[in-house]
Write a structure and sequence with these properties.
The chain folds into two domains: 40 residues, no CATH class; 237 residues, Purple Acid Phosphatase, chain A, domain 2. The longest helix is centred in the N-terminal third of the chain and has 32 residues. The chain is built from ten helices and 13 strands. The N terminus is likely disordered. The strands form three sheets. It has a six-stranded mixed sheet with strand order 6-7-8-9-11-10. A five-stranded mixed sheet has the order 5-2-1-12-13, covered by helices on one side. A two-stranded antiparallel sheet has the order 3-4. 40% of the residues lie in helices and 18% in strands. It is elongated and about 160 Å long. The chain is of the alpha/beta class. α10 links the parallel β8 and β9.
Length: 344
């Protein structure tokens, strides 16, 4: 009986023994197939998550700390005798401060004196002068300061009135195609034309006053008169052709214009300081010198720009557009004028 009981107990153990042997193998297989479960089971995943959180937070904390720390003051190279490294052209271009535009003057005038168009290369030189004005100066107005044409040539002597008129029209049209043009009568126009011929072409009198941009007053004078108040016929009145004389009526005009206007520009072919009646002119100029912005003349063909003090005012002696191949540029601000020349 006892033996029977012992056999039954053995048989029971024998049944569970295979299961006990298989169970560890199943556990190993389960965790080998699912390592995440193994990490979770033993708490390793929690440690890993904590490391990730710390890794993400740490750089942010470092940046904030840097921003809270005050920066050291920047030391300029010259303060520490340090020679800065040479920058590349591209870097230099980026670092340059944009230049401020220079304000345009209140009035810019281009002056063409003694062009003598029609004489040999006269028209060629005049075209060059106009090109410079158009492309380099862009004046508000242009002044033809007299002797725009040449009424003589080596072959024929004095040219005909018809030829002179044609040359004069052509020369004016070349300039007026680009700029408002105001003309002064020179002596060479009158070698073949009368003043009436000139006035008919210009549409202006031989002396006059006119207001231009920003209230500047041009006073155009004509010195082609003799002491009898008669127009000079340049062919026959050599006594005044090179010196000039301003008529009594013009003296009255000059006095009234200077008296009644504050920004005056006096333009004449013959120089004021060389006129037959220069003393009469000087008295008027001195009286109103503070109202005179500019005095300019041609006729003398100086090699470079000349400045002569007359009546307490600077008189600008402009070189010839033909002989010196030079024009003058006047830039005016307020009652101050700056005169320069350009060669071509």
């Amino acid at each position: 009986m006892d033996d029977l009981v012992i056999v039954e107990k053995k048989s029971t153990k024998a049944k569970f023994l295979p299961l006990l042997l298989i169970l560890p193998a199943l556990i190993l297989i389960f965790f080998s197939q699912y390592p995440k479960n193994f990490a979770t089971f033993f708490g390793a995943e929690k440690e890993k998550e904590q490391e990730i959180i710390l890794t993400e937070i740490q750089p942010v904390q470092e940046v904030q700390a840097e921003s809270e720390t005050p920066k050291e003051p920047e030391i300029k190279p010259e303060e520490n005798n340090i020679v800065p490294e040479e920058s590349s052209p591209e870097e230099t271009a980026k670092e340059e401060t944009p230049k401020e535009e220079v304000p345009r003057p209140d009035l810019t005038i281009g002056i063409i004196a003694d062009a003598h168009a029609g004489q040999e290369k006269g028209f060629s030189h005049l075209n060059s002068a106009i090109w410079v004005l158009k492309n380099q100066v862009q004046p508000d107005i242009v002044i033809d300061l007299g002797d725009l044409i040449e009424s003589r040539n080596k072959k024929d002597g004095f040219i005909s009135k018809k030829s002179a008129e044609a040359d004069y029209r052509k020369a004016r049209s070349l300039i007026s195609a680009y700029f408002p043009l105001y003309s002064v009568v020179g002596n060479h126009e009158l070698l073949s034309m009368s003043k009436d011929n000139v006035n008919n072409i210009t549409g202006q009198k031989n002396y006059y006053a006119i207001t231009v941009k920003n209230g500047y007053r041009l006073i155009i004078l004509d010195a082609n008169y003799n002491d009898k108040e008669e127009h000079i016929d340049a062919k026959h009145d050599d006594a005044f052709i090179y010196t000039g004389n301003v008529s009594e009526r013009q003296l009255g005009l000059l006095n009234n214009e200077l008296k009644n206007n504050d920004k005056n520009i006096i333009l004449i072919h013959h120089p004021l300081w060389n006129l037959e009646n220069k003393n009469d002119v000087s008295r008027i100029i001195k009286k109103y010198k503070d109202k005179i912005v500019l005095v300019a003349n041609g006729h003398k063909h100086p090699v470079t720009l000349g400045i002569i003090s007359f009546g307490g005012v600077k008189n600008y002696n402009i070189p010839s557009a033909y002989h010196q191949r030079t024009i003058a540029v006047v830039k005016i601000n307020g009652n101050s004028a700056t005169v320069s020349t350009k060669k071509y």
